[in-house]
Amino acid sequence: MCRAVCTHVNGGMAFEQEQDALLQRCSVYNSRGDSQARLVVVSLLRLVLDEQRMDSIRSDLFKRHSDYNIAVDEIGMKLDFIWAPYVSNLTHLVMKYKVKRNYPDVLVMGSGLWHMLHVNNASDYDVHLQLLKNSVVSLLPFSPELGTNGPVTGSVSFRSPHLFWLGMPMLINGMLNTREKRGKMNDAMWHAYDKALGNTKLLRQTGGPLILLDIQSLTWNCGPRCTVDGMHYDGAVYEAAVHVMLNALLVESHQRL
């Protein structure tokens, strides 16, 4: 599993160096979700690839509704993106990990926008999030509520992956590019979906297993100037999310040493 060097770091340069070391120690990154997750993958790759190689993979990386994987041999990192727009897709993928007992070092998941547009039912979203939470908890060697003092019944013995949830962005309704989106993806529905996420206690802040990458706050701070369609934002937003993730990985890795 990935482990950062346990040193006291002062200053931005040293912290960036430790993040680079962490990227090398976390050899397998898996991102599962919708277009927001794909944009996070793009930002992560920009940290580890030069401009020429980014240009060479851009067409494959930006194919809509498709999977993508890459090996960065220079640092021994493998990254997989799986197009999984519904929560049920995520649950299925998590259960495949359990069956195969083959886990990534870092797992980033996110879903909501696709369900909001095509299902438009926060109660249904709530049900599927609860099923996802149950499947994720069944992977963990210890219950998040119990810390490391109590095992989960039926759990396997292994060092669990670092788990992240990619939150939904702020939606700017007037900028959404279809009438259907503007009708279904309104503020009331966004908040209903956000409430469902809180109700299921999937996130670490509510006692669950996943650390939130708070895209909503990042997009709120950036605002309308950072988006052309009210949903997908400039790269700076997703780059910030990647750095938040790496900071959390550093903290978790130090705690696990």
Automatic annotation (TrEMBL):
Keywords: Membrane, Transmembrane, Transmembrane helix. One of its GO terms (molecular function) is acetyltransferase activity. It is found in: Membrane. GO terms for biological process: xylan biosynthetic process. Its main location: membrane. GO terms for cellular component: Golgi apparatus; membrane. This is PC-Esterase. The lineage of its organism: Eukaryota, Viridiplantae, Streptophyta, Embryophyta, Tracheophyta.
